[in-house]
Amino acid sequence: MSLPSGWEMVIGLEVHAQIHTRSKIFCACPTGFGGEANSRTCPVCLGMPGALPVLNRRVLEMTALLGLALGSRVALRSQLARKNYFYPDLPKGYQISQYDQPLCEGGAVEIPFEGGRRKIALTRIHIEEDAGKNIHLDGRSLVDLNRCGTALAEIVSEPDMRSPDEAREYLGRLRQLLLWLGISDGNMEEGSLRCDANVSVRHVGDTELGQRTELKNLNSFRAVAAALAFEAERQVAVLESGGKVEKVTLLWDAHEKRSRPLRGKEESKDYRYFPEPDLLPAGLSEGELSTLVAGLPASPLDRLDSLMENHDLDFYEADILTRERAMVDFFELLAEACGDSKAASRWMLGELARQLNDRVQNIEDLKLRPDSLAELIVLERDGKLSGLAAKSVLEKMLEEGGSANEWMERLDLAQLSDAGELANLVKSVLEANPKEVERYRGGRKKLFGFFVGEIMSATKGKADPKEVGRLLREGLDA
Amino acid sequence: MEITDKLLREIESLARLPLQQDERESLRRDLSRILDHFESLAELDLQGIEPSSHVAQAEPFYRDDEPRPGIGSKIALSGAAEIEDGHFRVPPIIGEEEHA
Questions:
Q1: Domains observed in chain A
Q2: Fewer CB under 10 Å: which end of chain B, C or N?
Q3: Domains plus CATH for chain B?
Q4: Model pLDDT for residues A162-186, shown as the tens digit of each residue
Q5: Which of A55, A141, A282 sits opposite B90 (nearest CB)?
Q6: How far apart are CA A332 and CA A422, in angstroms?
């Protein structure tokens, strides 16, 4: 996308992430996706009169952990608040959220930028409950309240992004961190990660913000980038034709690739926020926060830098290897065990990634341990296994476990690279095919492939092709 | 405080309550008196007093993240005005979005 020159975009994102808990935020109903409609409900999440909420401790812990990882100030006491509105997916008539005293304030999400990093500042992170799901049918709507009361963290950024790509990068890095810390599964398709955006445009160099509009329903990375580009271009067109951008909320239609204004959207004061009387101010103690800090793992970008620095990988390799924590942990053990970072990276990004993808498996579910893969890499490097045979061994190890050496022997795949043995073989093949040898020597150089084929079939493909070539050339060209 | 027609209509719409004209007049008077009554709070001198959001001084209490079965869809739906396919059936919702 490109705005006409002289214009720039200003973007802030509001991200809702479902917190990975076993039970809902204010009641013990199980969480989950799908299943029989309205089966995971109780008087609390159905909004029955008199039912009282009790806050799930893990929601505080996970959200505080996120805040600590992002450098936010985490409050020892935050305030739950009622956000009042009527909608069928919210049976209480209000959502329990946070307003003027959120759990976390400030902090930043770091994104890679021009070889270094750039900080996208955060306004706040607060906890709240999710609503149920509506299904819109002809002449009626149906409501499933299974999702109602699922714990959410809402992460609000400052208007710090300047392009759709940057917004996409921010969302990607935030999602990576949520997975990294085990806070959310970040699945946009299933709605466990959702994104709204505030966007405005202004002349490059202006310090004042332009009138913003709000974009909702950005439910994929592609939708985020497409919707922002579409809306910024629309705003520029309005301003260049002498018009004024109206403060509106727009719903993105991913199918039509356009946004349409939403009618009757409430303003903040219409929600009549007030402190939630059914819950006491909530927060963790300083001791509990210190324990969380002590348990914080190194961040994805720190691990990425370390891979580039200590393992001589380029950004692309290091970036993919740090998508998931289990992946980079595996890599570092593998690189150490086989003593060859480049080979370790090549195997993980190549054959192993392909196998994982085919099996729809995660690295942590594997029977394969880093030292077993290291053994395989060493066998290939030392010429004991051909590249093709090594792949077959990997497949067996993934399916049934066991060591590379074991499988190499069981499958009889050990590469024949013993010079004496191969020399004898070459000799006998040449003796068995005198006519071809004569024609080759007479100029039919293409017959070289025929001899290689004969040797390969005699050894069931196990002969070291490099060694075979060298010996054949010796025998034929002598 | 004066409750204008515009304000009253906004309140009606937020509360999803359509009012009759005579109800509107009496409600306007009542609301106005209620708000005036609460205005008297503004007379208090609150300087030096910490804002508080809750009367209880207790330590907060949390639940462990242990799921328990809910009441099941049959009971959940037993009070519903209309049911379709295991769902609560409600009048059509058009052109609005999810809030959360």
A1: 7-291 (no CATH), 298-410 (no CATH), 419-477 (1.10.10.410)
A2: N
A3: 5-41 (1.10.20)
A4: 999 999 999 999 999 999 999 999 9
A5: A141
A6: 38
